[in-house]
Amino acid sequence: MPRRQFISGENACFNAAQVLSEQVYTYKQFDSVTDKNIWGSNTTQSVLKQSTVLPFQHGVSASAFIKAESLISLIPQLYKLSQDKTGVVIHVVAENPNSSAADFSHIMSARESVPVILCSSSVQEAYDLAIVAQAVAIKYNTPVLHFYDGKRISHQHVTIDLVDDQVLSQLLSQQELDQYKQHELEQVASSYLQYKQQQQPEQEDKQDVYQSISEVMVQFATLTGHHYLPMEYTGHVEAEKVVIAMGAGASVVEKVVVDTLVSNKDAKIGLVKIRVYRPWSSADLLNTLPRATVKRVTVLEPSSVFTHLWNPLFLDVTAALQVAEFDHVDISSGRYGVEGTDLKYGQVFALFDALAKPTVDVDYNIANLNLLYPAQGTPSSLKEGLYVVGDLSQFGDISQSNVHATFDNGFYHVRFGSASSFVSDKIYKGKYVIIGEPSEAAVKAVSELDVDGTVIFSGAEAIKDLESYLSNPLKRAIATSGAKVVYVDNVKDVFTVGINSLLSKAKALTVPSGWSQLADQESSAGQASASAAGSAAKTESTLPVETPYLKMLDQVFQDRLQVANAVNSASVWSRDELNPSASAPEYGYGKILNQIQERARFIDEVETLVKKNLVSQVVYKALSQWLLAVKSSKADVKTINKAAETVVEAVTHVPAAEYVAKNKHLLFNKSNWLIGSDAWAYDLGQSGIHHVISQGENVNMLIVDTLPYSSELEREQRKKDIGLYAMNFGTAYVASVAVYSSYTGVLHALMEADAYNGPSIVLAYLPQEPNSAAVNPLYTMKETKVSVDNGSWPLYRWNPTLEAEGKEAFSLDSQRIKKDLEKFLERENHFSQIVAQHPDISQVLDVTKRHQELKRKAREDFAKLLSGMGAANGPPLTVLFGSDNGNAEGVAKKIANRAKSRGLQVKFMAMDDYESVEELANETNLAIVISTAGQGELPSNSRDLWKALNSLNAGDVNFSELNYAIFAMGDSHYWPRPEDAGFYNRPGKIIDAKLENLGANRLVPIGLGDDQDADGFETALGLWQPEFWKALGVKDVGAEDDEPKLTDDQMKINSNYLRGTIAEDLLDESTGAIGEINGKLLKFHGSYGQDDRDIREERKKMGLEKAFSFMIRVRMPGGVSTPAQWLMMDELADSHANGAIKMTTRQAFQLHGILKKNLRSTLRNINHSLLSTLAACGDVNRNIMITPVTEIPEVHPQVQDFGMKLMEHLAPKTTAYHEIWLADKQIAGNAVQDFEPIYGPTYLPRKFKIVIAVPPNNDVDIFAHDLGYIAIVDANKKVIGYNVTIGGGMGMTHGNKKTYPRPANLVGYVPAELAVLCGEAVMTTQRDFGDRTNRKHARFKYTIDTHGLDFIVNEIETRMGTKFQPAAEYNFTDNADRYGWTKGVDDKWHFCMFIENGKIKDWPDFQPKTGLRELAKWHKGEFRLSPNQHLVIADVPEADLEKTKAHLAKYKMDNLSFTGLRLNAMACVALPTCGLAMAESERYLPTLVGLLEGAIEAAGLKDDAITIRMTGCPNGCARPYVAEIAFVGKAPNTYNVYLGGGHKGERLNKLYKESLKEEEILAEINPIIKRYALEREVGEPFGDFVIRAGYVKKTITGMDFHENII
Ligand code: SF4
């Protein structure tokens, strides 16, 4: 007997944590259950004063209990724990103190910082998963976050099964603990080890971890009988409407689904419960869903943060379904917990009702649902709950009773009696309240009673003098409630005798009339309460449920289930040697037959009764209808049992029908099962099985087969196949299922078997390790997978009913192994008969084969297309590439094209698109072009083929006919340390060596392309290629080496003024992406295609398209928008994007995560608000930046006005934008020729960026842009003209010295009236002299360095028609934003707030998105985006000043108390959306700044402004090269560090150290900070100091950026 205890969810978790930890940190004092853990060492509880840091120690197994609101501040530590692979468990109560519902917002905020997140949906589950969490943490060295709902689980009391220490130590042994500790200590000892661990491919880790959790769950199940899956489906096997949920809310849905299916088995509804939320497995989700039938999915999530339209779980689910191309599935989001509203039982019905409507809302606030769709309501069994005020200990030990108590609103909501009345939902309108103490909570409880409720008192004080015992509010509440008031002196018996019995001995108390005038309305209350209590007294029937299959039978059939033979673990898992006859099929069959005969006699008797017409009309009608149903071949169980209920009601107390009443159990249809083992298969022809099948009675058999079939030997020695044997009879239902392969498949089969009117056999697989007495869950799981996959345990169903309906009786559920199944079936003698009877079966079995054929044909067609429609007749050549950023692919493409033009038959594709290594051996000639990723890793599209190749040993496959050549691409200086030299071109080298080792013939020595060579990789390619052609014998074949290249200019010309075929591409629903050329053109329209790189690998492994979406950038000079425009962006962020607004480094709005189908409507809405995205990206003048808050307030309107005019003047004039996005048809296109007066049809060679600075602020970074204007202001505060700078730019390529950032040159002054003309002259000079052949060299900075500054200036002056005047005096002080309040003109005020990295979204503890939206509803001024990604609330009228301040304070948006370092930090977007990112940026810089702040504060530099910037790649979007400290991503977690930029943005920095990781960065920078504090001169900025102190040399021009590196 398991130990049982009545306990709350949180205490249960604490109990589990204590016995499995040495140290437990808690936020409050828990009652300790022990001072020793299962390994016999001490376990200690420490209550933390604050939970901002958890003091975990290395080498100590630990867990912690924290409140959800502490989680956010722990995020940095969580990252660290993950990185260090510290095996600790953090239990989190997911609650919001202001809400009675759960709230997952905090957990969701931290979801990316912990590798494993588990969620529990009941108290028992919370206890069990707390154990699983601890086991996973220790076994796999990973932190685990385990969370559960606040009210419903944490504060809920039920009786649960506890697991004995001895069992726990089987789950988590001393040895495993020791290994973990050893690992932990090694972690401390070896930082090198940490690096190695970080280098492991993260995605592989995620997969492994998910698998590991599943394995621990299986192991746990075997030891305890408590089964959990990471994701679990409950519901109809062909469900169309499915809810996906986590936590206690999922249990409410589960209850509704189960109850609905009991009353209507055809209700096509279901639930997927998520237990393992991280790592997220899209593959598992897709497998768990009833994918063939599901049409509508709703994702439920409790969140108080209702500004996020799309909750995280919803996004995870949506992404999974979209990528899997479940386009036919409507996905909606259901939010509860909003404003404290809980998820109620009735609301789930309303939700399913809503999902049945023809059109589905995408977003539900669940609380509103029952207004829109009247809910079916809560069934009476759930209403009849009991409130208890006071301690539950007043009832003594109730652990043996079925009691379920939730503490909410100061009192307990108690359900008891039948387990079926339990739902993870508090009681609304309870029937009874037991008042153990007359507290304030008692007033609440009474006022929540239903109209006919009963108030129950007990105890001496109450009976002595109720008048003085109760407070006035309680008296009033009782009187106004109309409840009956009683006294009982045996209240503690309530859970044993039932409420009815208790009340039968109760003494009624009179409520004095003075308590309330409603006091005389109580009279009718008693009756209802008495009858209502009836059902609560039901006791739960218990069944032996030792195996997963038995549990499922119990779950599916509940009261209807009748297992006829002896069932216990011995008889199912092995033969019951002690009592073999009791477990034999004949034994159970005899019992069932007896019942069948008994029922047949009963039916005869009823028939006689009806015929004799001896009963009343009511009884006659009821009996006749039951007879009709029971004799009809079409009636289902539900109809029969419903008719049976009517009969029971009708015949009670009818003497003539006494026989019926006495035998009423025979009225109901049962689900009769015989449970057996595979031993029944021996000697089939003589067995009980033969007997059962041949008799044709309605008996179901579940046969659990424990023999492993994966090995050839076992298959050869296998016993007779019961399934095929039964199928031969043609009259038996047969199913072959495996619970660890398809849970829903098992459910489906059980239901079909039950519904089938005849013998049914369900063969259930549960393989056990041979020669092992103990159950090995890992073995079971693996063996199931292998056996199902290789076809030795096929999953199928044979349903003769379908055959009678003219449908195919045989259906195959193990889709991927059809071919193997065919072989398997062919081996059996009977298969030919089946095929003969059902010729279509062979077609079914051939689907995979046909798919493969089609795939092969498509590949061949593609290859033909590349080789000139099959015209080539030269030798074959297969060109494969491995390429992450397209360079190697481009080279491979060139080689393929050149080969074609030499007459070779060419196949060309990515390595991983190639069929198989075996096929590779059949090729004649093979060329592989492969680049190098990270630290010598293979590019992502080549890893699978390499894995397969690398697994071969010489001789496994004959490669002797294959000739091969490899061209590798890398950078010999990318990893400069000598010990890292092996990373250089490693992928190419290992493939080259492997192919040689396998016996293939090397055509030419490997080519090693090196970025360091004079022409980069082209140098080596130029040498390698002729040798390659020579080896192929086509060197001298006259051929054009390159097909005419489609240059970017040609692309622009062909595009018909930026139209391309974008409009057509948008209509293509077969992909979420857009074609390559259209993708380039789309940039001119302000949008980039992106994909979520966080999940790229996972999708690829699933064979799915990348998670494509689009970024949209809004062009808005000076970053100025109106409140109405802000509201529009806010709305679009929620409705069309990922819920956040990104303010860019160039004062533009960006929205991310927009799906292709929403692109057009998003742009339309943006345009409706009078903003535009045209020319926000692309080879044109982009958004113009302008100082948003000028020191002289009067200057801003003047520079803003200039910026607007300049933008208008330089904007593209094509009508394509309007046509594609705004109009419904082509308005110009081919009919009207567009005209670009400034750009012409080829636009600019590259992007062009303009800024306007107003001294003393250089916030726009004037020297980092192609063209800059420095406003010159006279004494009258008038902008009289501008100093002009040209040729600044940031981007470069690692390792390519021909690319470099460049500070702009100051070339002179122009009067204000010439400023627009000057802009045109500068831009057209670049248009005409920029390099149009090499995009890497096409920016204006290179044009100037190529042609010389004088030449360019002269050209500009010629175009302007005047010379530049000498530059006017100006002075910059810094390049930061002007934070805080400043006064503008006309008594208006501006406030510049700090928004970290420009991200506007709501966090649980900081909600700027909501705050700004609310502000925009009444703010009369402007919103101005700052150049450093912050936000200015501009032009606040004096009258609104206090109101605005109060509003900012309310949302904490007025907080500027950050370090100078953080206030001056800026990062680009980088991962996961930027396709060029090599490392994290925006997601990591805040952490790094946090780490540096320690040194900053210790050095007393808290308020000193030091410019610090980070980008994910050298492209430089956050202008890193003018920062005083810069980090530029080089590889995951690895950055080049630059120092010495000018504090005013006037000087470039210089490379200080290459390829540093976090610890190295801290080790390098912290001492410099310390020295700076001690040694700086007065007013000396950090950037100047590091040069003076000799850390780096000063950079003068762009061309010496790469020189003089120390
Ligand atoms: S700097 Fe690089 S990683 Fe960052 S956003 Fe720009 S292109 Fe992407």
Automatic annotation (TrEMBL):
<dbReference type="GO" id="GO:0010181">
    <property type="term" value="F:FMN binding"/>
</dbReference>
<dbReference type="GO" id="GO:0051539">
    <property type="term" value="F:4 iron, 4 sulfur cluster binding"/>
</dbReference>
<comment type="pathway">
    <text>Sulfur metabolism; hydrogen sulfide biosynthesis; hydrogen sulfide from sulfite (NADPH route): step 1/1.</text>
</comment>
<dbReference type="InterPro" id="IPR006067">
    <property type="entry name" value="NO2/SO3_Rdtase_4Fe4S_dom"/>
</dbReference>
<dbReference type="GO" id="GO:0050311">
    <property type="term" value="F:sulfite reductase (ferredoxin) activity"/>
</dbReference>
<dbReference type="GO" id="GO:0046872">
    <property type="term" value="F:metal ion binding"/>
</dbReference>
<dbReference type="GO" id="GO:0000103">
    <property type="term" value="P:sulfate assimilation"/>
</dbReference>
<keyword id="KW-0349">Heme</keyword>
<dbReference type="GO" id="GO:0004783">
    <property type="term" value="F:sulfite reductase (NADPH) activity"/>
</dbReference>
<feature type="domain" description="Flavodoxin-like">
    <location>
        <begin position="877"/>
        <end position="1029"/>
    </location>
</feature>
<keyword id="KW-0411">Iron-sulfur</keyword>
<keyword id="KW-0479">Metal-binding</keyword>
<dbReference type="GO" id="GO:0009337">
    <property type="term" value="C:sulfite reductase complex (NADPH)"/>
</dbReference>
<dbReference type="InterPro" id="IPR045169">
    <property type="entry name" value="NO2/SO3_Rdtase_4Fe4S_prot"/>
</dbReference>
<keyword id="KW-0198">Cysteine biosynthesis</keyword>
<dbReference type="Pfam" id="PF00258">
    <property type="entry name" value="Flavodoxin_1"/>
</dbReference>
<dbReference type="GO" id="GO:0020037">
    <property type="term" value="F:heme binding"/>
</dbReference>
<dbReference type="Pfam" id="PF01855">
    <property type="entry name" value="POR_N"/>
</dbReference>
<dbReference type="InterPro" id="IPR029039">
    <property type="entry name" value="Flavoprotein-like_sf"/>
</dbReference>
<dbReference type="Pfam" id="PF17147">
    <property type="entry name" value="PFOR_II"/>
</dbReference>
<dbReference type="InterPro" id="IPR006066">
    <property type="entry name" value="NO2/SO3_Rdtase_FeS/sirohaem_BS"/>
</dbReference>
<keyword id="KW-0004">4Fe-4S</keyword>
<comment type="similarity">
    <text>Belongs to the nitrite and sulfite reductase 4Fe-4S domain family.</text>
</comment>
<keyword id="KW-0560">Oxidoreductase</keyword>
<dbReference type="InterPro" id="IPR045854">
    <property type="entry name" value="NO2/SO3_Rdtase_4Fe4S_sf"/>
</dbReference>
<dbReference type="InterPro" id="IPR005117">
    <property type="entry name" value="NiRdtase/SiRdtase_haem-b_fer"/>
</dbReference>
<keyword id="KW-0408">Iron</keyword>
<dbReference type="Pfam" id="PF01077">
    <property type="entry name" value="NIR_SIR"/>
</dbReference>
<dbReference type="InterPro" id="IPR002880">
    <property type="entry name" value="Pyrv_Fd/Flavodoxin_OxRdtase_N"/>
</dbReference>
<dbReference type="InterPro" id="IPR008254">
    <property type="entry name" value="Flavodoxin/NO_synth"/>
</dbReference>
<dbReference type="InterPro" id="IPR011786">
    <property type="entry name" value="CysI"/>
</dbReference>
<dbReference type="GO" id="GO:0050661">
    <property type="term" value="F:NADP binding"/>
</dbReference>
<dbReference type="InterPro" id="IPR029061">
    <property type="entry name" value="THDP-binding"/>
</dbReference>
<dbReference type="InterPro" id="IPR033412">
    <property type="entry name" value="PFOR_II"/>
</dbReference>
<dbReference type="Pfam" id="PF03460">
    <property type="entry name" value="NIR_SIR_ferr"/>
</dbReference>
<keyword id="KW-0028">Amino-acid biosynthesis</keyword>
<dbReference type="GO" id="GO:0019344">
    <property type="term" value="P:cysteine biosynthetic process"/>
</dbReference>
<dbReference type="InterPro" id="IPR001094">
    <property type="entry name" value="Flavdoxin-like"/>
</dbReference>
<dbReference type="InterPro" id="IPR036136">
    <property type="entry name" value="Nit/Sulf_reduc_fer-like_dom_sf"/>
</dbReference>
<keyword id="KW-0521">NADP</keyword>
<protein>
    <recommendedName>
        <fullName>assimilatory sulfite reductase (NADPH)</fullName>
        <ecNumber>1.8.1.2</ecNumber>
    </recommendedName>
</protein>
<dbReference type="InterPro" id="IPR009014">
    <property type="entry name" value="Transketo_C/PFOR_II"/>
</dbReference>
